[in-house]
């Protein structure tokens, strides 16, 4: 492994430096807390070469041995979940409780990889004709690569390299340059679990590293999660170079609130899903469509959002932490202002919030914008901050029409107590992941993360059965052992046929 060995403490990330480095900062203070080496071209080549050299022996390693590595790995993650969460909060800013959830959801994927002996089974069909059998193997691709975003420093890398590696591939991981420390610790834990040197390599960088991954011929598959602009670019460039690419991108997730919904539960769910993680989730419920009389719930919704506590993520009682950077904060503030200028109503304004002791932090408080229409910039763009935009509809059909017209298809939810309404919604809405009274319907890893339309590029989704398909290729063997071959006197020169 090229992942550098280092120790991790609550307040500082220790890694080896090089003359070129990436600064890692605390988002509540904008102070530098650590450095990681920015990989040079030579170092990236060395990382891929290390993966390539390790591939032959790793792919030939018993599947039971690979399973044992990840059984040990999931235990090490469990043992270190609080330390990983502290590191995420320090680097990324989310609350400690949310950071533990980040690690836990990634851990569930690692636990899923431990079922590889069943997941990777092929298929057989004996006696398709006399003395002839056909069977398939699932085999690894080679070197695979992952490019992860800043918002889930543990979960999304754990969607990637454990799935790829347990299938027998070796892996090149590029974490976000904004949150590099967690990936380093995860790599160290995998090394401690017994993964051989070279099976996982970690590089740090930005555009040059992304282009390297898209272009290097030894890399056979790329997993990406992040923005639409980057995702479209990586999908196009990687695909042109003959690579498999799965690219999860942006979203505009709608929550439809029916008048018959359980009011108390629905309001709590909306507030949590819109403002948790400071809205920096691709599955955040950033848009609510209030149907009919549900529009009368707006004052209560605002009142609940007002009571959320904005603070540094490691402070007791914090509900909403800082955004990832000053630039992200400024962009969110600009999109809020655009809504005001285009005629929306600002019911709750989280701009200019000051957090005592963290005056230099990247904070935006919970914000609610109502009277929003689909042509407004605050609706058309993914805000990626603690902002909930409110649309209104007279009927369920009108709400469905709004959602299906939106280009994104990552997630959606409906809140209702009517089963017929829920069934109609789930059948007619064109979105990959749907929650019924569940605001953030991210599936557990025995299923797959199935965002669609402009939220996803590729043919095969993350984790679950589709994750195994993405990281493996099929080899089909048709064999014939004729009983009479032992005594056959002359060759057969006619065209071989099957099924006769």
Automatic annotation (TrEMBL):
<keyword id="KW-0560">Oxidoreductase</keyword>
<dbReference type="InterPro" id="IPR015590">
    <property type="entry name" value="Aldehyde_DH_dom"/>
</dbReference>
<dbReference type="Pfam" id="PF00171">
    <property type="entry name" value="Aldedh"/>
</dbReference>
<dbReference type="InterPro" id="IPR016161">
    <property type="entry name" value="Ald_DH/histidinol_DH"/>
</dbReference>
<dbReference type="GO" id="GO:0006574">
    <property type="term" value="P:L-valine catabolic process"/>
</dbReference>
<feature type="domain" description="Aldehyde dehydrogenase">
    <location>
        <begin position="27"/>
        <end position="477"/>
    </location>
</feature>
<dbReference type="InterPro" id="IPR016162">
    <property type="entry name" value="Ald_DH_N"/>
</dbReference>
<dbReference type="InterPro" id="IPR016160">
    <property type="entry name" value="Ald_DH_CS_CYS"/>
</dbReference>
<dbReference type="GO" id="GO:0004491">
    <property type="term" value="F:methylmalonate-semialdehyde dehydrogenase (acylating, NAD) activity"/>
</dbReference>
<dbReference type="GO" id="GO:0005739">
    <property type="term" value="C:mitochondrion"/>
</dbReference>
<dbReference type="InterPro" id="IPR010061">
    <property type="entry name" value="MeMal-semiAld_DH"/>
</dbReference>
<dbReference type="InterPro" id="IPR016163">
    <property type="entry name" value="Ald_DH_C"/>
</dbReference>
<keyword id="KW-0520">NAD</keyword>
<comment type="function">
    <text>Malonate and methylmalonate semialdehyde dehydrogenase involved in the catabolism of valine, thymine, and compounds catabolized by way of beta-alanine, including uracil and cytidine.</text>
</comment>
<protein>
    <recommendedName>
        <fullName>Methylmalonate-semialdehyde/malonate-semialdehyde dehydrogenase [acylating], mitochondrial</fullName>
        <ecNumber>1.2.1.27</ecNumber>
    </recommendedName>
</protein>
<dbReference type="GO" id="GO:0006210">
    <property type="term" value="P:thymine catabolic process"/>
</dbReference>
<comment type="similarity">
    <text>Belongs to the aldehyde dehydrogenase family.</text>
</comment>
């Amino acid at each position: 492994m090229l992942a550098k060995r280092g120790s991790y403490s609550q307040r500082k990330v220790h890694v080896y430096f090089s003359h070129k480095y990436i600064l890692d900062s605390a988002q509540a203070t904008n102070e530098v807390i650590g450095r990681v080496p920015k990989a040079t071209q030579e170092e990236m080549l060395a990382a891929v070469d290390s993966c390539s050299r390790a591939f032959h022996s790793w792919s030939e390693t018993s599947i039971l041995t690979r399973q044992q590595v990840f059984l040990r790995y999931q235990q090490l993650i469990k043992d270190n979940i609080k330390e990983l969460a502290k590191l995420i909060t320090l680097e990324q800013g989310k609350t400690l409780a949310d950071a533990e959830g980040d690690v836990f959801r990634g851990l569930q994927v690692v636990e899923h990889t431990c079922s590889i002996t069943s997941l990777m089974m092929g298929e057989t069909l004996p006696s398709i004709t006399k003395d002839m059998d056909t069977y398939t193997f699932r085999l690894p691709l080679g070197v695979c690569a992952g490019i992860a975003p800043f918002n889930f420093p543990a979960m999304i890398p754990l969607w990637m390299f454990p799935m790829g590696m347990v299938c027998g591939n070796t892996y090149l991981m590029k974490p976000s340059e904004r949150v590099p420390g967690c990936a380093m610790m995860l790599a160290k834990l995998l090394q401690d679990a017994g993964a051989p040197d070279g099976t996982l390599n970690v590089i740090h960088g930005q555009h040059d590293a992304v282009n390297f991954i898209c272009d290097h011929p030894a890399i056979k598959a790329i997993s990406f999660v992040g923005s639409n602009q980057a995702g479209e670019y990586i999908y196009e460039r990687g695909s042109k170079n003959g690579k498999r690419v799965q690219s999860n991108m942006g979203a505009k997730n709608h929550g439809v609130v029916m008048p018959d919904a359980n009011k108390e539960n629905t309001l709590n769910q909306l507030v949590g899903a819109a403002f948790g993680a400071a809205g920096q989730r691709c599955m955040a419920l950033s848009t609510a469509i209030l149907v009919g009389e549900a529009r009368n719930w707006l004052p209560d919704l605002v009142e609940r959002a007002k009571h959320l506590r904005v603070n540094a993520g490691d402070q007791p009682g914090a509900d909403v932490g800082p955004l990832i950077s000053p630039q992200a904060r400024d962009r969110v503030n600009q999109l809020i202002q655009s809504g005001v200028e285009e005629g929306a109503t600002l019911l709750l304004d989280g701009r200019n919030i000051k957090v005592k002791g963290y005056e230099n932090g990247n904070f935006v408080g919970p914000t609610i914008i109502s009277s929003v229409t689909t042509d407004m910039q605050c609706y058309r763009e993914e805000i990626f901050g603690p902002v909930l935009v409110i649309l209104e509809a007279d009927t369920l059909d009108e709400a469905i029409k709004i959602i299906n017209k939106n280009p994104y298809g990552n997630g959606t939810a409906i809140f209702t107590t009517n089963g017929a309404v829920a069934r109609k919604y789930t059948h007619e809405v064109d979105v990959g992941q749907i929650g019924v009274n569940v605001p953030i319907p991210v599936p557990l890893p025995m299923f797959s993360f199935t965002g669609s339309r402009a939220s996803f590029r590729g043919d095969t989704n993350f984790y679950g059965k589709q994750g195994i398909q993405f990281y493996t290729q099929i080899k089909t063997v048709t064999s014939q052992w004729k009983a009479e071959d032992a005594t056959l006197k002359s060759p057969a020169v006619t065209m071989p046929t099957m099924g006769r």
